[in-house]
Specification:
alpha/beta; 10 helices
């Protein structure tokens, strides 16, 4: 039995209107106090982790805002403390506007071998409606940069059911994503989460594709990606053969993992638990 590690980097430049993940928007960069707290937790748990990790996942927030050099340093600490398997899947989430060839080469050299990029839509108006700060062109540039940096395992996140989205605009987004030749696609149905700006707008009359329309978008996606060589292996995930996310599968197969950071969940040592969703409390604790 192996182990998975999830590292939560809860900082991002801005908060998307649909997002209810725990994060601290409004800055590029990560305070040193948070890094110190994360390192303390990594040291604290390492004696209790006899299993060797074979998946590492840096999620957020926007981990790429942490900086490639600092991610490299953090990876070095993790490898030393947890004796990570040589063939481990190491994923870093990123936004298209937060990476370039130079930073990605640093990550690739440090052992990151999988990128998960938040594309969401190829339609500029749809991106603006959900307060995404990147453009479709930046997605193209980031995907090209990933290839130039040596990445051969790229995943793109897409969302269907967005405000103003139609079947035609969703099809255009999927086709655009396919043209970038990713190895993996995650396609999520938009969910209106209580307390988000999107929920407030819906309460004020914002019209979204209804459940039946979302179902049509979803079923078309399953068929289109199957024909394109991306069989579905989980509700929202599709991959070329051999590129299913090993870390994603860990959750579905109830294999052990430890999460670090505020709001991070774990399934380890015969119990499920999560950390408090409070940055200050996490740092002080």
């Amino acid at each position: 039995m192996s182990l998975g590690l999830y590292l939560h980097i809860p900082y991002c430049f801005s908060k998307c209107r649909y997002c209810d993940f725990y994060s601290a928007p409004g800055q590029r960069g990560v305070p040193s106090a948070y890094v110190d707290a994360l390192l303390r937790e990594l040291h604290r748990f390492s004696p209790d982790a006899p299993l060797r990790p074979d998946t590492l996942y840096f999620g957020g927030g926007t981990p790429s805002y942490y900086g490639a050099k600092r991610l490299k340093e953090l990876l070095g600490v993790i490898r030393k403390l947890y004796k990570v398997e040589k063939d481990a899947e190491v994923t870093v989430e990123c936004n298209p506007d937060s990476v370039d060839v130079k930073s990605l080469k640093i990550l690739r050299k440090a052992g990151v071998n999988r990128l998960s990029m938040g594309m969401q839509s190829a339609n500029a108006c749809e991106l603006e409606r959900i307060h995404r700060i990147h453009t479709p062109q930046q997605v193209n540039e980031a995907a090209t940069a990933a290839r130039k940096a040596g990445f051969t395992n790229l995943s793109l996140d897409l969302i269907y059911g967005l405000p103003g989205q139609t079947m035609d605009s969703w099809k255009a987004t999927v086709e655009h994503a396919l043209s970038l030749i990713p190895q993996h696609l995650s396609c999520y149905g938009l969910k209106v989460e209580e307390g988000t700006p999107l929920a407030a707008r819906v309460a004020q009359g914002e019209i979204l594709p209804d459940d039946d329309q979302q179902a049509d978008l979803y079923l078309w996606t399953v068929g289109r990606l199957e024909r394109a060589g991306y069989p579905q292996y989980e509700i929202s995930n599709f991959a070329k053969p051999g590129f299913a996310s090993r870390h994603n599968l860990r959750y579905w197969l109830t294999q052990p993992y430890i999460g670090f950071g505020p709001g991070a969940h774990s399934d380890f040592g015969g119990r499920r638990y999560s950390f408090v969703q409070d940055l200050d409390a996490y740092i002080q604790g």
